[in-house]
């Protein structure tokens, strides 16, 4: 009953013409409001005027922990037969074009995995205002260096050839990946310093040292990982990054190698904050990264140098 009443009300609201011409007085009020609005926007503390890359409303702990952000999300499938250099995938992107272009992130699965193993990140991140490309690799056995090249091929396809290329700011790109895909995201950042953010998730790589990286990097490890133990993967990867780099190490508490394969609020909230801070230059998200998060039920350990503000 209640649902019917609500449906009825919604119909009544939408029956009027959406573009009714305002009367003379209403039109004057609109003009005054527009002038006041412009004055407000150019005043001090106006985020939108300060940072052209900022997207979406001011964040809160609730908004970065939410299962969906403020943007409705559409998706489109990319066939492996239509691309070269990687195995196709799925693009998740904000449906609306009203806010201009967005930064973009390519995400690789791990050894033996497919895009389904990281699919939860697609709508979770896209709904916060990113174009997100969850990819398949050429073969599920590809090693980290190959996954790195495939992430870059996927970004090139996304920004130059894909049906959503016009929605993307091609200068604001990032990479993520699970396990060998996380190792691949380190390889991609090493190869392409223009990347704005990298987030390896329980990363695996035989190369333990990454002093060549200049891309802001958040490494996520899992305390119970026996496949890519943090002591021989995530921790030395983090330690080997340049000490002056914007870098962080988040070790998940009560987690395993496969924690990044299902929806996880801790991974999501710090990934969103990292991507917003470094792909969008959005300092509104610095509050979630600095001061460094404290150990908790979900955080075993967190290290980093807080983002440099200038
Ligand atoms: O992508 C991964 O899960 C890497 C861990 C692994 O299976 O390494 C074995 C060689
Ligand atoms: Zn190295």
Explain this structure to me?
- The chain is of the alpha/beta class and 310 residues long.
- The chain has 2 domains: 2-42; 62-304, Alpha/Beta hydrolase fold, catalytic domain (Rossmann fold).
- Helix content is 32%, strand content 19%.
- The chain has 9 helices and 9 strands.
- The protein has helices at residues 2-15, 24-42, 47-50, 61-65, 121-126, 144-160, 180-191, 234-240, 265-279, and strands spanning 73-78, 89-94, 102-108, 130-135, 168-178, 197-201, 217-222, 247-252, 299-304.
- A 9-stranded mixed sheet has the order 1-2-4-3-5-6-7-8-9, with helices on both faces.
- α8 (234-240) links the parallel β7 (217-222) and β8 (247-252).
- The longest helix is centred in the N-terminal third of the chain and has 19 residues, at 24-42.
- It is globular and about 40 Å long.
- The structure holds 4-ethoxy-4-oxobutanoic acid and zinc ion.
- Zinc ion (ZN) binds at residues 207, 209-210.
Write out key terms for the chains shown.
binds 4-ethoxy-4-oxobutanoic acid; single chain; 2 domains; 19% strand; 9 helices; Rossmann fold; 310 residues; disordered N terminus; alpha/beta; 9 strands; binds zinc ion; nine-stranded mixed β-sheet
Please describe the topology of this protein.
Elements: H1 2-15, H2 24-42, H3 47-50, H4 61-65, E1 73-78, E2 89-94, E3 102-108, H5 121-126, E4 130-135, H6 144-160, E5 168-178, H7 180-191, E6 197-201, E7 217-222, H8 234-240, E8 247-252, H9 265-279, E9 299-304
Parallel strand pairs: 3-4, 3-5, 5-6, 6-7, 7-8
Antiparallel strand pairs: 1-2, 2-4, 8-9
The site of zinc ion has 3 residues, from loops.
């Amino acid at each position: 009953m209640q649902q019917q009443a609500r449906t009825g009300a919604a119909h009544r609201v939408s029956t009027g013409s959406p573009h009714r011409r305002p009367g003379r007085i209403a039109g004057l009020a609109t003009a005054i409001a527009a002038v006041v609005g412009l004055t407000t926007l150019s005043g001090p503390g106006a985020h939108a005027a300060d940072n052209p890359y900022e997207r979406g409303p001011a964040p809160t702990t609730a908004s970065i922990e939410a299962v969906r952000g403020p943007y409705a999300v559409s998706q489109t499938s990319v066939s492996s037969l239509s691309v070269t250099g990687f195995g196709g995938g799925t693009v998740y992107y904000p449906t609306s074009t009203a806010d201009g272009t967005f930064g973009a992130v390519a995400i690789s699965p791990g050894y033996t995995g497919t895009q389904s193993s990281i699919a939860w990140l697609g709508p979770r991140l896209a709904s916060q205002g990113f174009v997100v490309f969850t990819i398949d690799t050429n073969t599920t056995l590809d090693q980290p260096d190959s996954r790195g090249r495939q992430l870059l091929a996927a970004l090139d396809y996304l920004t130059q050839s894909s049906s959503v290329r016009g929605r993307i700011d091609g200068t604001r790109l990032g990479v993520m990946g699970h396990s060998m895909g996380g190792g691949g995201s380190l390889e991609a950042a090493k190869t392409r310093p223009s990347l704005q953010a990298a987030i390896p998730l329980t990363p695996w790589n035989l190369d333990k040292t990454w002093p060549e990286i200049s891309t802001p990097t958040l490494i996520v490890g899992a305390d119970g990982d026996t496949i890519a133990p943090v002591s021989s993967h995530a921790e030395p990867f983090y330690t080997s990054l340049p000490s002056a780099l914007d870098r962080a190490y988040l070790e998940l508490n009560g987690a395993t190698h496969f924690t990044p394969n299902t929806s996880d609020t801790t991974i999501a909230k710090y990934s969103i904050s990292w991507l917003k801070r470094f792909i969008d230059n959005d300092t509104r998200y610095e509050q979630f990264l600095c001061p460094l998060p404290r150990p908790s039920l979900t955080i075993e350990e967190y290290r980093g140098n807080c983002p440099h503000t200038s």
